[in-house]
Amino acid sequence: MKILDRYILSRFLYNFISSFVILMLIFIFQAIWFFIDELAGKGLDIAIVGKFLFYYSPNLIPNVLPLTILLASIMTFGNFAENYEFAAMKASGISLQRAMKSLIVFILLLSIGTFFFANNVIPAAEYKSYNLRRNIAKLKPALVISEGVFNDIGDLNLKVEDKYGENDKFLKNVIIHMKNTKNENSTVIKSKAGELVSSENSNIIQLILKDGNYYEEVEQKKRKQQTFPHAKAHFETYTMNIDLSELNDVDLEKENISNTYKMLNIQELKYTADSLEKDYSKIVTNFGNSIYIRAANLHEKKDSLFTKKDSITAFEQNVLDMLDKNRELQIIDLALNTIRGAKNTVEGKKYDLKRRAKIINLHKIMMNDKIALALSCIILFFVGAPLGAIIRKGGLGLPIVIAIGLFITYYFIGIFAKNLAEDGSMNPHMSSWISTFILLPLGIYLTRRATADKEIFDIGNVTEKITRLFKKKTKS
Questions:
Q1: Residue 170: beta bridge partners?
Q2: DSSP of 414-474, one letter per residue?
Q3: 453: left (phi over 0), alpha (psi -120 to 50) or beta
C-alpha cells in the first residue's frame, strides 16, 4: 500500500506543480498588464520591475492555489479512471477513500501551511509591494505628463488638453493649480499654450506659458463679511521653473505606509476592527448629541421671538397667524436655514459613517478570508477528486474546462458576497464562507456518487421514473 500511496501522491504532485507554475505565470502576466501604466515610462530597470512582481506574487496565491488544487485533482483521478487504474484498484479491494488517503494527508498539511502563508507572508508581501508601487508612482519624468487629467508635480497640479511636437514639448490649454503653505489651491493659472524646456543634466524644467490669465486668492487675517480679495492679471508670456529633483530622486526602498488592512495578520485585524468600531460608536453618539443640542438651541431662539402673551395663545391658533409680518419672516427664515443646515450636516456625516463602516467590514472580511482560504483547499479537493473519477478524463482538455467553470462559479459567488458585505448588506463574517459552503454539499454528493461508481446524474433512472408516472396517468 505504501508503494500505491507514493505512486498516487507523485502523480498528484506532478499535476499540482505543473498546474501551479502555468497558472502563476498567467496571473503574473495579467498583473503586468494591469500595472503597465504605472511601470511604463518611469525609467525603471528590469531589477526593480522584477522586485515588484516578486513582492506582488504572494497576493495571487488566494486565486491560484484553489484553482490549482481543483485542476490537479480532476486531472489526477481522471487519468486513473481513463487508464483503468481505478478499476484495478477496486478489483483489489481498494476503495476511493483509501486511494485518496495519502492525498488527504497532503491536502491537510497544505491547508495548514496555506493559513500561515496567508496570515504572515501575504501581509508582508503586500506591505513591500504597496510601498514600492507608491514610490514608483512618484517617478514622473518631465516629458511624461498624462493628457486630460491633473498631474501632481510637487506643489503643482498640472493639466493639459493635448501634447504635440518633438518629444511632446508643446502643450495646449494648460491649467495649473498652485498650493500655498497651508496646502490649499490658492493660485490658478490658465493659458492657451505652453512649452517645456529642459536639459539632460539639470533637474530644473522651464514651463513657458503663453496667452493666459493668473488668479491668486489673497489671504486676510480677519475676514470681514463675505469678501474674497484676490489678484488677477493677464499675461502674454509667463515662465515657471519646476524643480524635479524631489520627483526623480525617489528611494524605492523607502517604506512609509504600514496600516492598510491587507498588511495585517488576524490578531492585528481583530484589534484594529475593535478599535475602529469603538471610534465609530463614539462618532455616532457625539453626532447625535450635537444634533440634539442644535435642536435645543433652535427651540430657545424660537421662544425669544415670542412674547409671553404669544406663548399663551400659541396653543389656540396657528403660530404664524398671531405674529406680525417681520417676526413671521424671521421664524420662516430661521426654520428653513436650520433645516438646510441639518440636512447638509446629516448627508455629510452619512457619507463619512458609510466610509468608516466599509473600512470596518473590510477588516472583518480579510480576517475571515485567511481561514476560509485554507478550508477551501480541502473542499475543492473533495470536489475535484471524485469528479475526475466520474468523468474518466485526464489531460488538459475537459478537466480544464470543468475546473475553470467550477472555479469561476466559486470566485464570483465570493466576490458578490463580499461586495454585499462591504456596504453592510450582509454579515462580513459570513461573506468569506458563502462560496466555500456552497461547494461543500457538492463535494459530499460527488464523493458519494464516485464511491458507489455512479454517474453524476443517473439519467436512465430519472427517465424511467418519468415514464412510470405517465403510464399511471394514462391508466387512470
A1: 164, 195
A2: HHHHHHHHHTTSS-HHHHTTHHHHHHHHHHHHHHHHHHTT--SS-HHHHHHHHHHHHHHHH
A3: left
Taking residues 47-53, what's their average pLDDT? 83
Contacts for 148 with CB less than 8 Å, ≥ 6 apart: 159, 160, 161
Beta bridge partners of 185: 179
Render pLDDT for 58-84 as a digit per residue (tens, 0 to 9): 989 988 999 899 888 888 888 887 887
* Identity of residue 305: L
Give the whole-angstrom CA distance, residue 154 versus residue 130: 21
Please report, for residues 151, 300, 302, 346, the alpha-carbon distance to residue 332 in angstroms, rounded to integers and kept in the order given: 47, 15, 10, 21
Is there a contact between 388 and 76 (Cβ–Cβ < 8 Å)? yes
User: How large is the average pLDDT for residues 408-435?
Assistant: 86
| pTM beyond 0.90 | no
Q: How far apart (Å, rounded) are the C-alpha atoms in residues 160 and 210?
A: 13
Instruction: Provide the 3-class DSSP secondary structure of residue 141.
Output: coil
371's CB contacts (< 8 A; 6+ apart) are 115, 266, 432
Asked whether residue 406 carries a pLDDT value surpassing 50, the answer given is yes
**What values do phi and psi take at 181, rounded to 5?**
-65, -25
Q: Which residues contact 84 (CB under 8 A, 6 or more apart)?
A: none
Neighbours of 174 (CB within 10 A): 21
| Tens of pLDDT, residues 215-228 | 887 666 555 554 55
Burial class (CB in 10 A: 0-12, 13-18, 19+), 471: exposed
CA 374 to the chain's CA centroid:
21
CA-CA distance, 9 to 62, in Å (whole number)? 23
The per-residue DSSP string of 312-336 comes to: HHTTTS-TGGGS-HHHHHHHHHHHH
